[in-house]
Amino acid sequence: MKKLKKHKCLASMNDKVKNVSTFVDLFQIIVRMKTKYLQLWLLGCLTCIMSSCLADTDDYDHWNTSNCLIASFKLQSDSIPGLENVIFTIDQVNGLIYNKDSMPYGTEINWLVICQVTFEMNPSVVEVFQASTGDSLSWNMTDSLDFSDYVRFDVYSADQNATKRYIAKLNIHQQTPDLMEWISFSGRLLGKTVQEQKVIEWNNYYWMYVRSTSGYELYHSPLTDRKTWIPVSLTGLDGKTLILSQITEYEGCLYMQASDGALYYSTDGSAWNRMPDETLVVRSLLGSINGSETGKTSPVLAAIIQDDEEWRFATMAADNQWERGAAVPAEFPVSGFGNSSYESMFYWHLMVVAGKDRSGGLSDAAWGTMTGLSWVRLTDVRTPWFEKREGVMLTQYDENLFLIGGINAANEATKDIYISLDKGITWSLTDTLIVFPETYKARGHASVLVDKDNFLLLFGGKEKNSANILDELWSGRINRLGFKD
Q: With b meaning 16 or more CB within 10 Å and e meaning fewer, what string describes 375-389?
C-alpha cells in the first residue's frame, strides 16, 4: 500500500493560514463568508493547492520494489494438444510450480513451448536454467523454453535487493492408465498347511477363517498390514463341518452355516452361537442385500432353505424372522458360486455367478435378485459367455463386475478375467492390459476383496478342488485408479 508522507505543500499552507490547521477547517471558513465572489475565488485557490499536492508524487512510497514473486504461470504450444488447458499451482513457500492433474500418459513434450508468466512486480532480470539441455540464459519473457524436464527461474527484484528461485515442472502420467499391474506379497501368510480358507474385511480388520489339520482356526490382521496374522480364539463351532466360503456379514453380525443345515451367528467374529430356530435347515447363504435409501426395501439376509424335500429361496429380516419365497430352480447354483451385491437405479441387488447345482452340475450363468425371494437368470441360456466352472471370484471393481478364475469340469484351474459392463447380462474376456502375470498360478476358491486404495486383493485359492490352499496374497490395481487429482 502507498504511504502518504507529510507533503511540502502542506507545510506551505500552514505558513499562509496560521489559524487554520487543515483543509477542512479552511473550507468551513470559506463557506461562512458572506461575499459570494470572495467565496468562489478562495475555493478556486484551495482546489489549485490540493491539485498541486496530489500531482506532486515525488515523496510517495511506491509498491515494494523488492517484490520478485511470480503471480501466474501458463504454458502454450500448438503442437501439444491440451497444454493450454493445464492449470499450474504456484507454491510460494517452497518455490515450486507444477500441475496437480498430470497430463495424459504418452504426452510428448518434444517442442519448445511458450511460457506466459506474470509477476507481482516487474523484475529487473529473470535467469532461466533448462535441465533438459543444461543451458542457462537471461530470459526476455518471450523466448520459448524446453519443458521436457524441469525449468528453473531465478527472479531478481526491480531494486535488485531480492531474488526468488522457482522450479517449474510439467507433470505427465508415467504409467499406461488402463494397465492392471499385479504384485505378489513376499513370504507366506500363515506358514502352515490349510485345506479351506475364507478372508473377509470386517470391523477394521481382515479376518481369516481356515480349516487345517488342527481343525477350524481364526486369524486377523490390521487393514494396514495383511502380512502379520494374529491367532484369535474360535468358539461354538466344535464338531461341525462348516461352509467357510459362504460366511456373510449382515446388520453388524457374521453368519455361517454348517453342512447339516444349522445356522450360526457371531457378533465379534470369535464366539459363535446357533440361531434360536433349530428347525431351520439352511442349504446356502447367498449373501446380503442392503435396503434402499427410499425406504421401500429393507436389508435382508438371502439364503436357500429346505422345507421337507423342497428347496426354497428365503430371507431373514433384522428381527430374525424368515420369509419363504420361490422354489429353487434345478440349475441354480448352491455351492462354489461367486457372489456380489451392488446398487443400481437406487436399489440394491445381489448376484451369484457360476458354481455347482444340487445335482453336481457346473454352471456358466449369472443370476440376480432385488428381494432374495425370487431370482432371474441374467445371462442368455443360448450364449456361453464363459466356461462352466466353480470357485470363481466375483467382485465389483472399476464400476464394473469382475469374474476371476475358477475350476472347470476337468478339475483344472483357470486364470482368465471376465468383465461385465451391464450388471451381469453379458461378459467379455479382458485383453492384454488386464491379465495376470506369468508367475501367477491359475486358481479357484480364493477370497477377493477391494481395499480403499482401489487394490484388488486375492487371498489364497486352490489349483485343484482337492488341493491345499495357496499361502499367497496377490494385489492388483488398474493404474488410473491410483492417479491422484
A: beebbeeeeebbebb
Q: Coil, helix or strand for 313? A: strand
Q: Comparing C-alpha atoms, which of 394, 391, 385 is closest to residue 442?
A: 391
379-to-252, 303, 352, 428 alpha-carbon distances in Å: 32, 21, 11, 12
CATH 2.120.10.80 range(s) for the chain read: 180-482
**pLDDT score recorded for residue 177:** 82
The class that CATH gives domain 180-482 is mainly beta
102 close to 113: Cβ distance less than 8 angstroms: no
For residue 51, what is its C-alpha cell? Answer: 491539485
Sheet containing 322-327: which strands, arranged edge to edge? 282-289, 300-307, 310-316, 322-327
Q: Who contacts 241 (Cβ-Cβ below 8 Å, separation ≥6)? A: 258, 259, 260
DSSP state of 96: E
Range with lowest mean pLDDT among 4-13, 23-32, 42-51: 4-13
Written as nine digits, the cell of 478 is: 488398474
User: What is the SS3 assignment for 267?
Assistant: coil
| Euclidean distance between CA atoms 445 and 191, whole angstroms | 19
Contact assessment for residue 350 and residue 289, using Cβ atoms and an 8 Å cutoff: yes
Q: Locate the DSSP E strands across 374-441.
A: 376-377, 389-390, 393-397, 400-408, 413-420, 428-429
DSSP character at residue 354: S
Average pLDDT of the residues of the chain = 87
Angstrom distance (rounded) from CA 101 to CA 55 = 49
The x, y and z cell numbers of residue 11, run together, are 507545510
Q: Are 378 and 369 in contact (CB under 8 A)?
A: no
Contacts of 133 (CB under 8 A, 6+ apart): 146
- C-beta separation of 389 from 408 below 8 A: yes
**What is the greatest pairwise CA distance in the chain?**
121
326 band by pLDDT with thresholds 50, 70 and 90: very high
Measured CA to CA, the distance from residue 128 to residue 373 in angstroms comes to: 71
Q: 3-state DSSP call for residue 244?
A: helix
Grid cell digits, residue 465: 478342488
- The topology (CATH level 3) of 70-169 is Immunoglobulin-like (2.60.40)
> Could you give the residue range(s) of every CATH 2.60.40 domain in the chain?
70-169
Confidence check: pLDDT of 43 > 70:
no
CA distance 320 to 316: 6
Contact 297, 305 (CB under 8 A): no
